[in-house]
Structure formats: structure tokens, C-alpha cells
Amino acid sequence: MKLFGSLASPFTRKVRIVAAEKRIDLDLELDNVMSPESAVPAFNPLGKVPVLVLEDGRTLFDSRVIVEFLDHASPISRLIPADHRERVDVRRWEALADGVTDAGILVRYENLRPAHERSPAWIERQMGKVHRGLAELDREIGTNAWCSGTAYSLADIAVGCCLGWLDFRFPQLGWRERHANLARHVAKLAERTTFAETAPRD
């Protein structure tokens, strides 16, 4: 299977970590979706990464769809629980972490616009989502060892990718000073090989 993605993309990183945890080999095809030469629109009409091209040529897009497919593709290291309530809890964590990341991405793109075209109100609105989301993630994890239940799961991966991307793109945010529970948790995740080997970079 071939994965189209970017080393800077937190959502590509999430897929790569899940694949590594599941011991599924993916051929990573780096692609800049902002380039007119990007191959991604031929596989995803939305022009976004990650995109997974299956052996039969079918394509899967949106990281949440891809990670669910990968989790069922191998019985190793189940990351999404089979129990309905447990599964929904893990996906809820993922949705919140992805939402914080999405808001941060919107701010990043807004800041790439010429200064006179930027909307301070739009940036403030999106950063409000980031701050509220981080506060909720911090409150919910508390002193628990893992985000959801009693084991490492997709919830931890999604949160780790969110926080890693914020460190990468918004180092000035200083979220660790306000969210000690998340700081503790991400330090533990950083010790895992799958996180260390997929650190975001341009």
C-alpha cells in the first residue's frame, strides 16, 4: 500500500504511527499539496493528505478513515476497542485532538497570508478553540496513565500528534506551562519509537 503524505502533516503522522504500531509496511510518497505538480488530487478530490492507495487501486482519505482501516487490517496491537462505548470514547478523544489541530492549521494558513489580508478576529476565534481544546484534554486525562481506559490506544496517538504539531508550528504557545497533565503524558509518548521516528519536520 502507498501512503501519500507530508512529513509536516500531523494527520499523516497519525497514520504512520498506527501503521508502525500495527507492523504494517506502507510506501510513503511525499507530496506537497500546495504545488501545482501535486499528485494528490488524482487520488483525493479534496486535495488533502494523507491518502492511502490500496493494493487494488482504491483510495482512502481522511486520517480517521485510514486508521480505522489499518486497525482492522492486522490483529497486532489493537488501537480501537471492539466494545461500543470504549470505541466511541477513543474516537471522541481523537475528534477533540484533531479539532485542536485543525484550528491550529487554520491559524497557520491565515498567518501565511499578506499581513494586510489577515483577519485578527478569525485568528483569535481559532486560537480560542485551541486553548479550550487543550484545557479539556488536560482536564480529562488528569492523572490517568492513558487517555482512554487502561491501555495505550488511538486516543493517545491522536493527542500526541496534536501536541507534537503544536510544538513544531507554535513553539511560542507554551502549552506545557498551563497543562501539566498533557506535558507529563506527551513526555511518556515521546519515549515510544513510533513517536520518535515520525517527529514532524518540513
CATH topology of the largest domain: Glutathione S-transferase Yfyf (Class Pi), Chain A, domain 2
Topology as H/E string?
A: EHEEEHHHHHHH
| Assembly classification | single chain
What Rg, in angstroms, do the CA atoms define?
Answer: 17 Å
| Category by helix and strand content | alpha+beta
Shape: globular
Mean pLDDT: 98
Uncertain stretches: none
Q: CATH architecture of the largest domain, please?
A: Up-down Bundle
Measured between the Cα atoms of the first and last residue, the distance is 23 Å
Reading off the top of the CATH hierarchy, the class of the largest domain is best stated as: Mainly Alpha
Quote the beta fraction.
5-15%
Number of strands: 4
How much helix is in the residues?
40-55%
Descriptive report:
The structure is a single chain. The chain has 202 residues and is α+β, with helices and mostly antiparallel strands. It folds into 2 domains: 2-73, Glutaredoxin; 84-192, Glutathione S-transferase Yfyf (Class Pi), Chain A, domain 2. The protein contains 8 helices and 4 strands; from the N terminus they run βαβββααααααα. A 4-stranded mixed β-sheet has the order 2-1-3-4, covered by helices on one side. The radius of gyration is 17 Å and the shape is globular. It starts with a strand and ends in a 6-residue tail after the last helix.
Give the SSE map:
Elements: E1 2-5, H1 10-22, E2 27-30, E3 51-53, E4 59-61, H2 63-73, H3 84-112, H4 120-141, H5 154-169, H6 175-178, H7 180-189, H8 193-196
Parallel strand pairs: 1-2
Antiparallel strand pairs: 1-3, 3-4
